[in-house]
Amino acid sequence: MSPGAGTPAPSPAAPGPAAAVLISPIGAPPRLVDPHEAHVSLEDQGLTRGDGVFETLHVLDGTAYKLDAHLVRLGHSAGTAQLPAPSADAWREALATALAAAGPGARDPSADLGAEHTVKLSISRGVPGDQPWAWLTVAPVPKRTFAARRTGVSVVLLERGHDPAEDTGLPWLLPGVKTLSYAVNMAAVRYAHAHGAQDAVFMTSTDHRILEGATSSVVCARHDDGAAPTLLTPEPSRGVLPGTSQARIFDAARERGWAVDYGPLYPEDLFAASAVWLTSSVRLAVPVTSVDGRPVASDPQLTRTLTDFLLGRPGR
Amino acid sequence: MSPGAGTPAPSPAAPGPAAAVLISPIGAPPRLVDPHEAHVSLEDQGLTRGDGVFETLHVLDGTAYKLDAHLVRLGHSAGTAQLPAPSADAWREALATALAAAGPGARDPSADLGAEHTVKLSISRGVPGDQPWAWLTVAPVPKRTFAARRTGVSVVLLERGHDPAEDTGLPWLLPGVKTLSYAVNMAAVRYAHAHGAQDAVFMTSTDHRILEGATSSVVCARHDDGAAPTLLTPEPSRGVLPGTSQARIFDAARERGWAVDYGPLYPEDLFAASAVWLTSSVRLAVPVTSVDGRPVASDPQLTRTLTDFLLGRPGR
């Protein structure tokens, strides 16, 4: 293990892509390209306007997790943004091509689940007057993700300025669309780092209702009667991006007979919880260790169970 | 004049860049590159996260207008987004290099002001682990801009979902920063086109207070006493991007002894106005001909005067 891997660095470089495939224009056969070469024009509207959509997904030992859920959400994003999307078959072919060309995945040193890759699927509107295009990149999961899984993360609560539920029903605001326009999400994470925390969770400005992490969903557990936990997450219909990992965890919990509940959640609910996690495809379920500098409870056994839910493994 | 130039097409292709200069990394000497080649990585955070800032400016007969104001706003954007910015000297050198390499500008067939170029200055955070970089592109002003100046544009009012004033004081929301994350602005323009209009103006969802155009400021004129007009624009401190063109127009109007006023403006104020414009650097002052399908007044003489204000010419 490299020195300092025990404490996630504030902003380490992610490893570059190990393989990249272009689908350009959309409808063309997936084409393996050198990930270290430039492929994008200075006039591409994905670059100049953040005008595109994406998904990030997790590959373990060559198998993509929740691929259908990601393709459904990508299709919704592209449709709302009036972008074409490659077919599921084209994405599957692109993924297989990229994985075959990529190096081995990275292994989590503290919980070796297998060889892990991060995969990004993106669609850009392209150069004005030209056609939209798509690309897929594969990279080993970065060490900081493994560190976060092991040590958990401290988070700060940041006001979102407005309730994103106000965007519902206004399609020009692209509600629920995972666009390439993520500058605010990235700024929130930088703000967290600059203030001694490792990640950011948004809340409404008015009543401080918990919304979502900057690039994750928020899930917490409550043990009302000491028996099975109740899992909670903020109401997904209220302008929060519906998390594919949160949904998978809740589906598995329901199958096990656990209660699940959809907020509203407030900061005091996080402090009263028996555990709090940020969930997303590659990080899986990362325990939150503190909120605004104040410790929150954690439950390593339940973290392992949620990870099993995500990986479709029999519960430990 | 090409066929159909009298009616702006909904979404015509802009001409590609005539010249491009990279400043990569920031601090390196500006370097002329082929604008038709790819220069950007699939992993560039300007592309994958809309994580960067930009300015668009107008060059007429080789002279950049409001260059200092644009560099000040770009510096503010970069500073708030924690990005480095090239020095003013580096940008001036990049601009001179690109203009020398670019073809002739385009001429507005109905109001030949000279040879006109659109210039974009952009900064991206770059590939993770690598350094931020900047670029400048020069292109002839597109015909649709000339058409809009001549015929004016119809606009739809679109709810912004929230009052952007709520973002003030929350730096992680990048208030007042002109980021590359413009997906919503572009979606608003597409929505306008799909609904028979040519551009979009945002208003608050709650009280329908006018905010700004999707990529422009809103300015209107009122003739209270039939003498000099009063120019009005929405209060710039309330989360609206401060427009360099609006500011230049108001400065010149004040010098001429006209009254200027900063909202609040509501839809009824647009219908009561003696003229309404969308203002931005390259389009200059484009008359609004209708709002939500209902005609608004225009004043061709005053449009010419505002254009003169923007170009620093003696009033006609």
TrEMBL record, chains A, B:
Signal peptide: which range, if any?
none
Give GO terms for biological process.
carboxylic acid biosynthetic process
The transmembrane residues are none
**Keyword terms, alphabetized:** Lyase
Annotated GO molecular function terms are: lyase activity
Pfam families the record matches? Aminotran_4
> What family classification does the UniProt entry report for this protein?
Belongs to the class-IV pyridoxal-phosphate-dependent aminotransferase family.
Q: What is this protein called?
A: 4-amino-4-deoxychorismate lyase
